[in-house]
Design a protein that fits this description.
alpha+beta, 7 helices, Flavin-nucleotide-binding protein (chains A, B), Split_barrel_FMN-bd (chains A, B), 6-stranded antiparallel β-barrel, homodimer, 256 residues, Pnp Oxidase, Chain A
C-alpha cells in the first residue's frame, strides 16, 4: 500500500473502551496477529443452545481474488475443518454467511508489579467479526488448503504428496469469513505502580518487580518411525527463525 | 477423589463427534487444561449485535465454598476483568447468569505427514459452557483475586503489597461461571499416513515426516527500573519447572 495504513472503522462492536491507548485498528497489525497464531478461537451460535460455541481452528488471512495482496490489504479469513462438523454444516446453510467472532492471542510476558492489581501481561490479541460461509469453488478451496498448510510450516505444501486425493478433498471443508470489523489490543513495556506504592521503601525492598518474557518455542524435530530423510532446510530455517523472532520480541517488549 | 474420576455428562452441547477417540470428559483433565492456560477465550452474546463476542481473559477453576477441593472435583471458574467492561455489565444484569463458552487451548507440536491432509497438531483443548454472574461477596472476591494472581506466578499474592486499596477493589470485577457442561480434546503421538502413501517409496524419500515439539517457555526475568531485589526463589523455581515440564510434555507426546 505504501501511502497509509488501512484501518477497520471504529463501530460499536469493535471499539476498545478500556485502556484504549493499547487499541489498534490497522489491518496490517490485526492480520499479522491472526496469521502468526497457531490456533484461532472461532465463536458462533447454534439454533438449539443458549450458549455460544467456541471451536479451536486453524486459519489464515488471504485473498483468492488477488493472491499477491499485502498483509495490510482487505483480506478474507480461511478456516479449515472437517466437512461434516457442526460449524461446516451451519456455514453451508447460512445464505448470507453465519455471524462469527474469531480471536487470536499471544502472551508475551508476565508483568509483575508491587501491587497484585498492577500486574498485567504483555500480549497481542485481536478479535475479528464476520460472516462465514462454506467455499464450494474447487480452485478457491485449493488456494485455501495451500495457504493454511503453509501457515503451519512455510513452503510445506509443495513438499508433500500432491495432488490431493478425491477422498481428501471430499472430507475437508473450508470456511471463508468475510470480515465485517476488527480490532487488536497490544500491551508492551515494563512494570508500573501507583505512586503510593513507589514511595513505600519497605515494599520495594520486599517485592521483585519486572517482566518475565514468555514465548512459544519449537524443539528439535522428532522423526516418525517411517521417516527416511534429514530435516530439510525449509524446516530448520523456519524453526530457527520462529525461536529467534519470538524470543527477541518477548525480550524487546520488557522495556518501555 | 481416589475411587473414580468424575466426568461431565455427555449431552448434545459437549459431545465430541469427530475423532472421538481424542475426547475427554474427566473434570480433572479439563480443569487442568483451563488452569494451565495463561489466556482463556470467553464468548458471550450481546443484545445489540448479531455476532457473539470473544474476550481474552485470565481465569482459574476453584471452589470458594471448599477451597481445599481437588482439581477433579466440581469447581467454578473465576474470571477477572475491569469492572465497567461490557462482559461485567452483562454479568451484573443477568439474574440466572449470562450463558458463556470458555475455551482453553495448548499447541504441543506440529505433526507433519506425507500428505498435507494427514497433517495435524498435538494439542490439548477444552471448552466449558456455563452461566456467568458478577461476584458481590467481598470474601469470595478476595478468594478469587488471590487464586487468579497465584495462577500467574504461584505464591505471588502474599509477596505483593497487601491488603488491596479501596480503589483497587472498586475497579476490579470478578465473574463466576457455574459450569453446565464441558469437554476436552487431546491429540498426542507421531505422524500417521494412509497406506497408499506409506507404500510410495519415492514419496518417502522426498518428504520429512515426524513431529516438531512446540511449547511455551519463559525467559530470564527482566527487572523494572525501580526493582531492588534479586529474583526470589518462588519465581525462579516456577520458571524452571514451567520450562522443564512444558518441554518434557511436548517431547513425550511426539511418540505413539
Amino acid at each position: 500500500m505504501g501511502r497509509y495504513d488501512l484501518e477497520y472503522p471504529k463501530e460499536a462492536i469493535n471499539t476498545i473502551k478500556r485502556e484504549n491507548d493499547r487499541a489498534v485498528y490497522a489491518l496490517k497489525t490485526i492480520h499479522e496477529i491472526v496469521n502468526s497464531c497457531q490456533i484461532l478461537h472461532v465463536s458462533f451460535n447454534t439454533p438449539s443452545q443458549p450458549f455460544p460455541v467456541i471451536l479451536p481452528m486453524i486459519g489464515q488471512m488471504g485473498s483468492f481474488e488477488r493472491p499477491s495482496a499485502d498483509i495490510g490489504d482487505p483480506l478474507d479469513l480461511y478456516l479449515h475443518g472437517y466437512v461434516s462438523s457442526r460449524i461446516m454444516n451451519l456455514g453451508r446453510g447460512a445464505e448470507e454467511g453465519m455471524p462469527v467472532c474469531v480471536a487470536a492471542s499471544h502472551v508475551d510476558g508476565l508483568v509483575l508489579a508491587l501491587s497484585s492489581f498492577s500486574h498485567s501481561y504483555n500480549y497481542r490479541s485481536t478479535v475479528l467479526f464476520g460472516h462465514a460461509s462454506l467455499v464450494n469453488d474447487e480452485e478457491e478451496r485449493m488456494y485455501a488448503m495451500e495457504l493454511i498448510t503453509n501457515s503451519v510450516v512455510p513452503d510445506r505444501w509443495r513438499h508433500t504428496r500432491l495432488p490431493p486425493t478425491k477422498a481428501e478433498l471430499q472430507s475437508t471443508g473450508i470456511l471463508k469469513v468475510r470480515i465485517a470489523s476488527g480490532s487488536a489490543k497490544i500491551r508492551t513495556g515494563g512494570a508500573h505502580d501507583e505512586r503510593h506504592d513507589m514511595e513505600n521503601q519497605d515494599l520495594q525492598d520486599k517485592v521483585w518487580t519486572g517482566v518475565v518474557p514468555v514465548q512459544q518455542t519449537m524443539g528439535e524435530p522428532v522423526p516418525s518411525t517411517y521417516n527416511r530423510i534429514d530435516v530439510p532446510g525449509y524446516m530448520s530455517e523456519f524453526i530457527k527463525d520462529f525461536n529467534t523472532d519470538n524470543t527477541q520480541y518477548a525480550l524487546d517488549v520488557t522495556k518501555d
